[in-house]
Design goal:
Layout lengths: L5 E6 L5 H14 L4 E5 L5 H11 L8 H25 L3 E5 L2 H11 L4 H12 L6 E6 L2 H12 L11 H17 L4 E5 L4 H16 L2
Parallel strand pairs: 1-3, 1-4, 2-3, 4-5
Helix pairs in contact: 1-8, 2-3, 3-5, 4-5, 4-7
Bound molecules: ligand Z5A.
Length: 210
């Protein structure tokens, strides 16, 4: 059986990843392609427990380095128990965030050393690299307004960050896309949903070409 493909979605808060993830899955299912939708941090019961720890706004501090380690702990659990087995069964895995999020949020956003992050990435998931990453790009003002309309007041530690933080994260993502243009496809996510969908379908059609 042909191994499945690994598609990830990235972007700042409120970029529309969850919405687009659903569109991607529906498009693949309509073509009888087996697909597994998942997310990070989380994706399995144990990794979802780590998600709660890392996102919760508690009294205790969490340094950028510790936050990075928690992201990779959740990722290790997720890769071993869900992502690799699904790909081996021939399923396409559609994952809402993966290691590019750590590069952008902890690396560019929080200033964690990029080489150290790469070392952790190769220790945790070695050769596993997404076949395609859809980077939903939009100005932080637009993303944050969408996210706040949806969920009201800031609920987790990231949603509580100031807009300046998301400018750094966005710049980090765009730099990753500049370095890996074949893998990371930039989608104009400030467009109306129908326009976003058109761009995404164009990329998916390219993936199915022999
Ligand atoms: N994080 C990290 O720091 N390091 C890591 O390694 C990983 C994660 C893996 C949780 O992620 C946090 O973890 C995240 C980064 C950090 N925090 N932040 N920021 P998450 O992905 O679970 O949470 P999120 O980024 O906060 O996602 P979100 O707010 O749920 O946004 P979204 O999934 O990108 O957007 P959405 O829910 O699809 O859409 C938001 C709203 O906009 C919704 O009402 C939609 O109906 C609407 N929408 C969507 N598209 C459009 C368009 N095109 N036009 C108009 N309205 C739209």
């Amino acid at each position: 059986m042909r191994a499945g493909r690994f598609i990830t979605l990235e972007g700042i808060e409120g970029a529309g990843k969850s919405t687009v993830a659903r569109i991607v899955c529906d498009w693949l299912e309509a073509r009888s392609i087996p697909v597994r939708l998942t997310r990070e941090p989380g994706g399995t019961p144990l990794a979802e427990r780590v998600r709660r720890v890392v996102l919760e706004r508690g009294d205790e501090g969490l340094s950028p380095v510790t936050e990075t380690l928690l992201m990779f702990s959740a990722r290790g659990i997720h890769v071993e128990n869900l992502i690799r087995p699904s790909l081996a069964r021939g399923e396409w895995v559609v994952c809402d965030r993966f290691t590019d999020a750590t590069r952008a949020y902890q690396g560019s956003g929080r200033g964690v050393d990029a080489q150290w992050i790469e070392g952790l990435a190769s220790a945790v998931h070695r050769d596993l690299v997404p076949d395609c990453t859809l980077l939903l790009d939009l100005p932080p003002t637009v993303g944050l307004a969408r996210a706040r309309r949806r969920s009201g007041l800031a609920a987790d530690r990231f949603e509580a960050e100031a807009e300046a933080f998301f400018h750094k994260v966005r710049a980090g993502y765009l730099e990753l896309a500049r370095r890996e243009p074949h893998r990371i496809r930039v989608i104009d996510a400030a467009a109306e949903l129908v326009g976003v969908e058109r761009q995404v379908v164009h990329v998916l059609e390219g993936l199915l070409e022999p």
